[in-house]
């Protein structure tokens, strides 16, 4: 096989991507479709899912609040039925959570962040791992963490807590599932261009009592390359980890962030 061919995912991979109607998840789903994979996405918003399918009719799709186990069970069952099995799970779904000092965070907001960002990963793993053990197509699990999963993040403690936990989950599962030939890795995006990041910056600016532009400049000054990353940067890393070139990469927390120095 040509060395460059190793960089391409094997055609026909069966892929499930959670939280994939927009943003990073949508870019990942579209990239897998372009790589001739069969892709199933889910998201919490029916209209967003419908728009995703209008944009890319090759997608299979379902609706789920990933913090609810029964809804995750439903979409995994549907994905298995439509795809005929599973080769790659991309545990991407997550929310930003509240921006506030620890003493000002509403307990319901804390619990919702934990449920959506962390518990959902377990719910998908619970159902997907048996399917991955049945395939010989270089099975893999890719979990979306964050640069906040390797650095402290003041005023974003629920979010950061879940992202650190995901790294621990990935490293533990890599050991557990390695004998079954299942690779498990985490991607840690940095400051990603887009509407969601704009909302985070706006909330942080309000909390700090400064303008949006001032807060954005602060974010960029913390990045060695002085630029944000794009959703396509994250999608490219996901494809690499799912390709034959990534067959011996497991248990890793890989930052795609331009080297964020601190938060």
From TrEMBL:
GO MF terms on file? oxidoreductase activity, acting on the CH-OH group of donors, NAD or NADP as acceptor
Q: Which domain of life is it from?
A: Bacteria
Q: Which Pfam families match?
A: adh_short_C2
The family note in this entry says: Belongs to the short-chain dehydrogenases/reductases (SDR) family.
- Name this protein carries in UniProt: 3-ketoacyl-ACP reductase
Please name the source species: Caballeronia temeraria
